Amino acid sequence: MDRDGRLGVGIIGAGHVGPVIGAALAGAGHAITGITSGSDDDRVAGVLPGVPVLEAPEVLRRSELVILAVPHDQLAGFVRGMAELGAWQAGQLVLHTDPAFGIDVLEPAQRAGAIPLAVHPAISFTGTSIDLRQLQASFAAVTAPGPVLPIAQALAVELGCEPIVISEEDRASYAEAIATASEFSRAIIGQSTSLLRGIGVENPGGYLSALVQSTVERALREVSDPLAP
Questions:
Q1: Residue 229 falls within a domain, yes or no?
Q2: Is the pLDDT of residue 1 over 70?
Q3: Shared domain check, 186 and 157
Q4: What angle is formed at CA 32 by the lines to CA 37 and CA 63, rounded to 5 degrees?
């Protein structure tokens, strides 16, 4: 970290989430040290131009803050594997973005002296710069040990999010809420558009767009303020 508080940030995971998180942190003044390779390096280069593509151990070696944005079923194994290689560093910030895990999954890194943080921005990532605007209007679930919770909260703010503290034991319920909201919405819209297409509506998604958006916005207002008209 330099004297202005800027960190060298490495990104593990080049899917829809990692590059956008990196771009948001770069916009907050941090330096992106590297990112691991993914299936669409051209898209990643568009979001993080000039950032070197490196092997995971080298990303860890160069970074004071490591962002883990890997699939849910790979996170624990990755953390454990890097620990077996001795790749984690004492004092290194390690932040994952998985909604279902708290900080327990980072315990192998923590044993090596790393500082565990869990920050999940509650948006549906596209992997493009569009997400940067979404982050500015979103919340993020943060979980961290008490002494370093302000660090997790500050990083969420730098992403553009309003941090909401979720305890370790509540992460499973939090993940269920996120999955229900996102997966149920997709399923219902898919069913509705299929029915409209079946009766000859040529652009069922466009037909439903205003209805769905206004319905969702009203439902959100009602749960936020039961007295709202």
A1: no
A2: no
A3: no
A4: 90
Which of 146, 166, 186 delimits the end of a domain?
166
- Residue 12 · residue 66 · CB < 8 Å: yes
> For residues 91-115, b (16+ Cβ closer than 10 Å) or e, as one string?
ebbbbbbbbbbbbebbebbbeeebb
Cβ count within 10 A of residue 187: 10
Residue 30 DSSP code: P
Statement to judge: residues 39 and 122 lie in one domain: yes
**CATH, residue 31:** 3.40.50.720
pLDDT tens-digit readout, 67-120: 999 999 999 999 999 999 999 999 999 999 999 999 999 999 999 999 999 999
Based on the fold, state whether residues 198 and 152 are members of the same structural domain.
no
pTM beyond cutoff 0.85: yes
- The SS3 call for residue 192 is helix
Give the total number of structural domains in the chain.
2
> Counting runs of H as helices and runs of E as strands, what totals does the chain give?
9, 7
Helix (H, G, I), strand (E, B) or coil at 149: helix
C-alpha–C-alpha distance, residues 202 and 23, integer Å: 38
Domain annotation covers residue 2: no
Q: Is 86 left (phi over 0), alpha (psi -120 to 50) or beta?
A: left
Structural domain span for residue 216: 173-224
Cβ 114 vs Cβ 106: under 8 Å: yes
